[in-house]
Every structure is written in structure tokens, then in C-alpha cells.
Amino acid sequence: MRNLVPLQLQLTQIELAADSSLLPLVAFETLSGTTFVVSSDHVLFGVSPASNDIQVECDLKEQASPGSKVTGLEYIPDLESVCITTDAGDILVYNVPSRQLESVGEIDSGISCMGWSPDYEFVILITGNNSVIQMTNDWDVVTEVPLHSDCPEICGLNPSSVSWRADGKVFAVNCIHPETLKPILKIFDRSCSAESSSEPTPGLQNPLVSWRPSGEIIAAVQKQGKSTNIVFYERNGLRHYEFALLDNSQVLSLDWNSNSEVLAIVLALENNETAVQLWHRNNYHWYKKQDWRVGASSKVEEGRRSEAIVAVRWDAEKPMELRVVLDSGRIIKWTFCWDIDSSLSLSPNNPSLTGVIDGARLLLTPFRHLSPPPPSSASVLDFDPLVSVNAVAFSRDSEVLVLLNDNSLAIHEQISEPTVAPKLKARLTIPHDQLDLSTCRQPIWIHSHFVMLIQTVLEAGSQEDRLVLIELDPSEGSLKGISLVSSLSQKPLRLYFNPDSFTILLESVTGEIFKVQPRDAKVLSTWRLVSHSKLPHPCHKIATTVFGPPDDQQENQKEEVVIALNDKSRLYINGLEASTECNSFAVHDQYILFTTNTHTLRFIDHSLAFKKELLDTTPAHAHDTCVREVERGSRLVSVVPFDSKVILQMPRGNLEIIYPRALQLAICRMLIDRKDYKNAFLEMRRHRFDLNFLYDYNPSQFLEHVDDFVRQLEKPSFLNLFISSLYDQDVTKSLFARREEKIQQSSLPQYLVDLQETANDAASGGKVTKICTKIRESLESSPLKDRYLISIISTYMCSKPPQLENALNLIKQLRQDELVPSIVDLDAISSSSSSSSSSAPVQKVSSDKAIEYAIFLADVEALYNVALGMYDFDLVVMVAQKSSKDPKEYIPFLSEIKKLQPEALQRHRIDCYLERWDRALDHLSQCGPDHFEDCLQLIKRRSIFLKGLDVFDFDPEAHPDLPDKDKEILQSQSNRVWGLYGQHLMENAQFEEAGRAFLRGNQLEDAMKAFRNTENWRKVMVIGKRLGKSPEELRKLAVDLTASLINSARFVDAASVLLDYCDDPARAVSVLINACSWTEAIRISYKHDLDHLVSQSIRPAVLEAFRQQSDLLEEKRALFVKHFERLQVVKTNNVLLPRLVHFQAETDVSGLFSDTSSMASSASGSYTMVSTVSAGGTRRRKKKRKKRVTGKEGSPYEEEFLVNALKDLVPSQSFQEEIKSLLVALLELGFRPKAIQLQHSFGEFLKVVHKANDIILAPIIGSGIDDDDEDSKQEPPKPKLFVEIDW
Q1: pLDDT per residue over 1017-1039, tens digit each?
Q2: Residues paired with 73 in a beta bridge
Q3: Which sign, positive or negative, has the C-alpha torsion 760, 762, 763, 766?
Q4: What phi and psi, each to the nearest 5 degrees, are found at residue 38?
Q5: What is the pTM of this model?
Q6: Which of 602, 686, 1111, 1283 lies 20 to 30 Å from 1096, alpha-carbon distance?
Q7: CA dihedral of 411, 415, 420, 422, whole degrees rounded to 10
Q8: Bridge partners of 429?
């Protein structure tokens, strides 16, 4: 699909003698580009491309044999010399730097041809005695073998040629067999050993041969009669394939370019013209891409002889540079590039018309409508076989302008049908004296009457580049005039026209871009060049597009930028590098698309205001659509505007049509914004898009226009597909998130984020349920409701959760409506059927179809269970018949249920089958008192105690009108259920709740047992009184409770029981002394006139408590001080010793710190130990740390141990309360000095604790704690180590 576009044209004229001409030989130096040619009078010329001057001019007659003819010319880079051979056997070398010519050898039998290996290490000479001589670049003969080993004695200088393969391992010789006198092709390896030869081929033109650099085939020429063919051979000498040239033509030269894409052929035609034809093979078809002619039909200036092309040569390093040598001394250097010629307008009416040049044919394909594979096309413009198409351009309206090599223009109308060639509007032949189109390139059709081109001419020996404007009248088929727009001071590289913005850009070889503007917008005949911008590097392809929102009201945010691609795969947008691996690009109405050498298709959104960040096509999230994988070597051919079709061409030449997700999304967004839901739905269905996008893109708009949505989709099947595709997730935040929208990153795992979003949707009614409800309301209000019954059922089935029962009710109603005609009035039916001119009624969906569809949407087992749960046996059978359930299973089951009586028992049986235990209990309770025991068993077996209480709990006051007998029965049932619930709570050790349940069920003995388990002595004594126990029994019960309370250390409660129910104040005082409740013990003693207990029991107990607390405080204080002092030392060492160890590693200070050597070694040992602690698993690490945290001095965990020990010694709040109570008792009993002593001791202890507060709460510095141990991470310091009470 690509065409060869001429980028540059360089002309050089060598002034020759009147009777001299250039020979068909050309060579050039790769680095400087100097071209070497030889004239017929034996003069060597070297032309520099930079200055276009002749740098070398050497007369070869000084060293060459008189009368000899030059047969070979080649530049040798290693020698910086030009090698020349003659038919007389001379081997001449001209050294370019020294400008010296010398003869390095002579072959007596003459030299037919010369061929240097690609690495210039060897040269092959074919001599007059039919031998092959191999020489080094030092001119030493390596080997000499006969060209024809079967007849080596036959001699004679026959024309031949040598062509090496690009890797230099083999070469081919085209020669004439001395016996058959027919040309053959012989293959030799690098050591001149013959490998193969072709069969003698009639008409094989000698001495033309060219080995394709890629090594697959060898090109040669065969002429039979009038026909001339280019034929190809394999390395083994077998014929491969061929293509035909013009009849009665003769091939003068063949040459492949270095990347094997283009074959250049020089032809001599029958009308005394010579032509250079460039052929390209793609998809097994040979395309003639360029045909440039010189001769009779060309302009011949007065006093200047006619010209003929004698040789062509491609540059070895730059594959798209071609040098053409004319016998008149003119040397032309063409620079080409590959490009797609297509209509560039971004309007919806653009058919994306692409033209492919193939000689006298122009292949046209409108990719918007169809995509035939090459070499096929939708239509063909055929011209005279003797002319060729050299260039093509398209107008804004997709009209076609064709430049032909006979100096004419062909103008065609825009296509009317995709497969019909556009009609010819005009054919204009331009006189050569006005404009020679062979010197023009890159036409752009800027208006129906104006065509602009770049022209290069040679005036007075110097080259001039021009911008030329052709004014024409297509309607009359006439040429109005040709004018010069501007003479260009810089060499032009590329001319571009944007038909949408009417922007014309001209790029120079330095990368500078000029904008070509009309001096008057109304008059397009006068123009001017204005500097526009400059590219970092010259680019062979440029384009422009507008960045910014498509809204016309935001013109200030729009900016037209230049897109450029150079031959180094660098893509520039607005002067910034967007890619370093781009091989093609195209512009869509919303995106810039480009393919890369790593086989990806990338997208840049230009519907946003331009900023550098837009050029980054790295995927922003997992579902980013800015990158798409494509087949290896794919290149863009066309991107259809306002469509999602992208055409790619593979390296072989076949086309691939894809619909990238980014373009599809752009189209869908545009359609939804227009509220064109039908086309958006069809587009998404065609490309298997997630249909949730129809709602998620603009939820509020969708809900407001649900009626439009239903009306546009129209078909129930479309609605059903949409409804069944819904799920509770916003696809615009996941699958189709836009790059410009920042995705909020969450610290939660993705599945939890999804669950959270789903929960939010559910809290707001749920997306799916909301949509289903809206659509259902719209359908039910429609006059065509009967048509959409399946869709209404879908809204029920697809809701979250599914409303299966509602769907089945609808189907049930539908089933009943189907039975109505069998019982309606027949007269009504008759009158309805006889009504005239009535429209056909909408066909109603049958219940069978509805149930089949419901089964398709939902799990048949769930649907069967829901139908069964509706207690409708007909509906159950209907569902079962449409499913794959075995009738032997469900029919006996249903028959068994139908036999049960009453109906509540049937429903109970169904509820049990469906494991709906609450409903089962409801229905079983309705079966009468005879089934009460069954109810109790069901409650106990299924643990539905709360439901049982709801069913059987009875309040007599709420039913005053019931008979007493019924009240007794209901109360008895209620008590039994409460008792059952209490037993359940007892089994689960919930004794307090069990006691309350037993009390509610009037089961006092069980309630007493439950409350005794919780030592709730108040409830126990109340229940004992309610049970009517005697005073002795109550006293015994109180004694038992006292013992239990004392065992549980509930001394105050035990004392209360002794006082209230045992009348034993002396024992109560004893219990309070044990509880250290000194004040309460003194109060009870004096209340009950037991003053002696104060002196006999309380005072001694208080003194003993004073002694114990004093000793304990002293012991705690001493231990706290000891641990605190050690902690200070440990913390100091943990801070200083790492620095000490580091200092010892750099300086020998062992003599200065002998006392700390052991400490340093222990510290370093602790560090070593830490590095080895890497146990896996948190639980295992916890267990391991508990074992190793000891108080041993020098232990890496000593600091942690000391901190924990000090925290344990800090006085707790309960300990402070005990001290406070003891101080009060000491004062009351007259022990003030002891109270002061105890208060002083405790105060000193608190001072020590306060002093250590900051150090204990500081982070642990010890090196023995694992960095990855979660438990070792210190919490933020608290303001106080302990809570100090007001004592």
C-alpha cells in the first residue's frame, strides 16, 4: 500500500567534450558521497554532493593501453582509491588523496568485467581466456580457475558480469557458454569453486545480473521476441519467477538497493527514450512505483544534445538514495521514502481513499467501505500502457489528481460507489517549455483549481529549488497558468497540506519548517513563506493535527501541532520526542496512532489540551487502552476518521483490519453523548464490549432517558442482552478508565476495594437493581408491554438479589391469561375477529417461552425451589418439565406432599425441604395442638428458639377474651418453650440468661440452679422465698452461698449474706478483715455492739497489714532502684558501643580501651546474633522471643527484660487503694506514727517511679530486637507510667 515518494533531487552537470559521453559505469565513496564516472575519452570524474563541484578529473590515457575500453569501475574504501579495468587487461588505481594514477597490473588476455567483494578484500576478474582470477586488495593473485571447466581451452573476450551476494560468501557470473553460445548463470563460492549453474536460457540477456542483498534470488534479463522479462534464479541455478517489462524494450542496467526492497532497472525504449523504473515486490506482486524517462519526448534545449540514461547505482549505506548517470554528463541523485498516499481529511465523509501506484495503473481503495487484500483493490484507474503514474494527490473532497510521466495531469471525480472507478474530469498535458514534471515532486491539491509542487532545476550550472503553483480549470480541462511561488534558499525535504485547517508546511533538509500562506485569503495566486518551527532532526514524514477539546467554545485551548517521523524511528510531536521506535503513524479525529518496532500500536489523545504528559504512552493501569499488541512488522495504512477501523499492513503485504479498544471507546462515548443509544449498543455488541459502559459512562443521563433507550433498542432480544450483562461495578473506573483520570490508589487489596464498591452500590439500592427497576417501569408503561414480557422477566431475574418469585408470579399470570380464551364469550371473539382495517396485534409471548427463558437466566434448581416455595404445584410442574429434572424424582415427591392435610402441613413439608425452618415452624404451629410436640422437636433440632418464642410466647393480658382453658393451654406451651430455651442456654454456659428464661417460663427450680452457677445470691434468695422454703432452709442456703462467695474472693458479698440471712455479724467482721475492708468492719462491729472485736481482731489485723505492706514497699523500692540503675547502664552502652565498634574497626585502640573490650565483643556478638534471627512466621517469632528475653547481664534482650520488670513494679491502682484504706484505718485506730511512716515509705517509692518515668517509656535501643518483629515496635510514649490516685 506504500508508494515511493521523492524527497530530494540533486542535479550535477559534467562538461564533456563534444564527441564524448559517459560510460555505463558509476562508483561512489560512501562516507563523503563522491560519485565517480568515466567518459568515453578515458577521463575519470569525481563529483562531490556537498558542493556539487567536480573534485576529481583524471585522464586515464596516460596509463591505459591505447584503444582500450573501460570495463570496470569501483571505489575501494580501504585504499581510498578508485580501481579501473580495461578490455586490454589494464588494472589502474587512482588514489584520491594523493591524486596519483598508477597501473598495478595487466592481464594479457584482457578483462571482461570486474567485481569486488562487499568487504573489499577480494576482486574477481573475468579474463579474455574465460578464466576467473581472484586477487586481494594488495593485488596478489589468490587463484585462477577456468570459467567453463568443461571446455577450458576455448578463449575469447565475451561480455560478462559479476554480482556478489551481500554477505560476500558467493558470487554469480552471467556469461555465454562457449559451446552452446547461450547465456548461462554460474555460481561460485568465495574460493572460486563452482557451486552450480543454470540451464542455458534462450534470450538471457548478457551481461546483466544482480544478486539481491538479502541473498534469496538473483535477477537477470530474458528477451524473447518483443517481450522483455526480469527473471529470477535461486542459488542452485533453478528458475524462480519473473515479471514483464514493456515490449520492445532493452534492459541496460540492474541494481538492488541495500535493503532489497527496490529493484532499479534502466530501459532503452523503442521511441529512443531511456527510462529508470523502480520496482517493488509485495504480497507476491511486482509494483512499478516510479518511471522516469529521458529522450525524445523530453525537453531538448537549443544547442544541447539529446540525453540517454546509461547507469544507475544505489547507495550502499543509505538504501533510499539512487544515482542516475546520463551520457550527456548529467548526474542525478534521488532520495526517496516510503509513504501512504490517502485522503487526509478528518471529516465523517472522508472515505479514507488510498491510492497505490502500479505503473500505468492506480489502485484505489476506500477503506471506510471495504478492505480488499493487495494486490487487489476496490477500483482501478487504467492509463495508457506506455505511460506510468509517478505521483498521486487527493483533494479535501477525495477527488484524485494523478501525475503521469508523459508530463500530464489526470483529474478524476470523487468516488460515487466503492467498487466503481471515479470518472475522469480532465486530462491536462503541460508543455515541457512551461514545466517539466520530471523535475517536480510531492504534489498537493490545495484547492480545486490549484496544485502546488516542489521543482528542482539546473540553471547556469547551479541547482535551484522552487515552489511552483499550477492553476487549472478542471471543468474546462484547461491549464490557466504556472507561477513561481518562491525560490527556496534552503533545500526542501517535504511538502505537506492539511485539508481541514488549510495548513501548508514546507520542511527543509535542516529540519526547519516554513508555513506557506496566501498573501490574500481570497486570492490564492500569491503566496509567502513564514518560519513556523524547527524539528530536532529532519523528518521524511510530517503532518499536523489540533490538540484541544472539540467544543468550538474552547478555541483558546486548541493548538495545531506538527507530527514528524524521521528515518531513525523517532517520532516528534510539537518538537518533543514521543517515541524512539516508531515506524509509522496516522491521525484519527481523536487520537494519534503509531506503530513501533517492538510490535505495538500506541495511542495519543489529541482531544485534550496539549501537554507533555500526553506523549507518555506507558500504560497507566492494567486495563489501559493506549497500547495494543500487533503482529510483528505491522505498519499503519489507514485510520478511518469517526470510525474505529484501523488498517495495518504486514511485512509480506497482506492487510489486517483491527478495531482498537481506544477508538471503539471514543466512538461509543460520542454516540452516548448524542444519546444515540442504539448505535452505541450495536457498536459495543459487534465488538463484544462490556455493555455496562452504556450506563456507567453517564449514569444520570441514562436514568433520565431510559424511555429513549428502550425505544431505540426496540428489539426485546437487545434489551435482554443488555439486562443480563449488568453487574454491580463501575467499568469506567476499571476496564475503561481514561488515562487523564487519576485512579485513586487504595492501601486495601483490590478484591476488598471491589467488595467495598459493591457494598456502596448495595447501600444505595444497587446499580443493577436500580437499572432493572427503571427499565421495568418503562416497559410496563409502554403500550407494547406484551411484546416486552421476556424483558420484564429479565429485570426480575437479573436484579441483585434475583426476584425469582416476582418473575414466576408474572409467568403464572401469563399462564392464567392463556387459559382465558377457553372460558370467554365466543361472540366477543367473533366480533373482535371481524373488525375491519384493524392493525395486527402484537404477538404475545407464551408462558412456555417465558419459563424456558427464566430457566436460561437462573439456576434451574433455584427456580424450582422458588416455585416450590410459592406452594403452587402447577407452577412447580411447569418449571420441572422445562428443566432436565427426572420426573421419577419430583412427581412422587409432589404427590406425597399433596396427600398431606391440612394445607398448612403441606406447606410445612415444603418449608422443611427448602430448609426454611422459621416458615416451617409457622406452618406447623397452625396445624393445631396435636403437633405441638413436633414443634418442640423442630425448635430444638434446628435451634430456632427465638422464632419459637415469637410463635408461642403468650401474654394473658393481651388476650382477655380467650376462654380460660385456651389460656391455660397457650400459657403451658409458652412455658415449655421458655424452658427449652433455658436448657439451651445452660448447655452453652450462659447461666444468667438461662435463669431469666426459666423465670419467664415459671420454672423456679431450674432458675435457682442457673443463678447459683453465677453466684447471683440476690436472685437465689428471692427464688428460694418464692419456692416457699422454711427459714432453716433459707439459712442453710445462705450458708452455702457464703462459702461459695468466700471461695470466689467476694468477701463483701459474703459479709452481706451473713448479715442479712444468717444473722452472724461476728463472722461478717471476720470476712471483711480478710478483704482488708477495715472501715466497714469497724462500722459493723460498733453497729452490733461487738466493740471487743475492734480490739481483739481488727487492731491486730491492721498492725499485721502495716508490717507486711512496709516490708513489701521496701522490697519493691530496692528492686526497682537496682533494675533502674542497670537499665541506665544498658541504654548508655547500646548507644555508645556501636560507635566504639566502628571506631575500633578503623583504628587500633585496643590498648586504650582494655576495660571495654569484653563489652565491645559482646555487643558485636549480639549484632551477629541478630543477623541470624530470621524465623518465619509471626507466631513462631513471638514464642522464640519469649524464651530468649532474660535478665542475664550482657544478653541482647536485657534492656527489654529490665523495662518489663520495672513496669511490673510500678504500683497499680488497686495497690494504691489498699494503701489508702490501710492509712485511714491506722489513723482511726490511733496509730498515727505508723500511718506517717507508711505514707513516707510509699511517697519515697513514688518519687523513684516518677524519676524513672521518661527512661522506662523511651524506645528500646537494644540491638537484639528484630527489625521485622511486629511486637518489638514501640507504641508512642504515654504521658504517665501509671495512674496515681488522690490518696
Answers
A1: 888 888 888 888 888 888 888 88
A2: 84
A3: positive
A4: -130, 135
A5: 0.74
A6: 1111
A7: -10
A8: 408
